[in-house]
Amino acid sequence: MTSQTPSGRARPLPPEERRAALITATLALITEHGIKVTTRQIAEAAGVAEGTIFRVFPHKDGLVRVAVETALDPAPLLAELAELDLDIPLRERLTRLAAILQLRLTSIFNLLHSVGMHGPPEDSPAGGAKLHPPNEQIYQAIVRVLEPDRDRFRYPLPEVARLLRLLTFAGSHPRITDNEPLSPELIAAVLLDGVREPGAADPDRPAEPSGPDHHADQNPSGPATTGSRVPGSKEHRC
User: Fold this and answer.
1) In angstroms, rounded to a whole number, what is the distance separating the alpha carbons of residues 107 and 68?
2) What is d(CA 192, CA 91) in angstroms, rounded to the nearest whole number?
3) Residue in 25, 23, 190, 13 with CA at minimum distance from that of residue 98
4) Rg (Cα) of the chain, in Å, rounded?
């Protein structure tokens, strides 16, 4: 956290750089040690005297809290989503999208578990009343990635983005998955294809009518006949 002056003496880092270095060191340590991490360990990892911490943060809990809030900041995720190539095929693009979301979720799950939290702090940028704006930004970023293939989905893109996040969350949470998370490839496949074999018959759909009387179900004013099609039913693409 210091550099050398021409005379060889240590030059203190600017306050913001010093603060960022302490946060980085804390994040790495609490993932390993949880809230039992000591200020001495943090100081050694950051390369500063222990007293330096208390000139930046009032106490260790304050430093840990700020570190958690920094990890929850959606800005790095949004930047990564913005760099996704929109020209690659849909399935590969959706797989990469799921991988990015899953990596972020996994890191957050591990971090919150390490500090004994069940969710983001209520007054953090990712928690409580402030949750809505970051969520909207993430959804908009996902919609942008899917936009080139808008016509290939049976639902509006905002709903597809919501389904993707729900599936990725459930498929990545260690308790929900019994520590066997879904792969990004499987998440993309389930979202695009479902779980039924292609071409498999729908057991809940009435059989197509056949024979000379099949015209009876085409009369909207006539009585329903056995084997008539469900009104308004039609096939959709993924």
Assistant:
1) 11
2) 8
3) 190
4) 27
pLDDT in tens, 30-43: 988 888 999 999 99
Q: How far is CA 218 from CA 8, 198, 202, 222, in A?
A: 92, 28, 22, 8
The Cα–Cα gap between 6 and 43 comes to 25
DSSP 12-55: EPPHHHHHHHHHHHHHHHHHHHGGG--HHHHHHHHTS-HHHHHH
For residue 2, the one-letter residue type is T
Q: Rounded distance, CA 67 to CA 7, Å?
A: 34
Pairwise CA distance, residues 222 & 78, whole Å: 56
Q: Collapse the DSSP code of 212 into the 3-class scheme (helix H, G, I; strand E, B; otherwise coil) and give the result.
A: coil
The alpha carbon dihedral of 146, 97, 82, 66 has a sign of positive
Structure tokens at 59: 């106490």
d(CA 86, CA 39): 45
Instruction: Round to whole Å and give the CA distance between 66 and 53.
Output: 13
Please give the model's pTM, rounded to 2 decimal places. 0.70
Contact status, residue 77 vs residue 84, Cβ threshold 8 Å: no
Between CA 140 and CA 77 the distance in angstroms is 12
> What's phi and psi for 227, nearest 5 deg?
90, 5
- Tell me how far apart the alpha carbons of residues 54 and 63 are, in angstroms, rounded to a whole number: 9
Judged against a pLDDT cut of 90, whether residue 125 lies above it is answered with no
Enumerate helices (H) and strands (E) in the chain, giving the number of each. Answer: 9, 2
H/E element, 160: helix 157-172
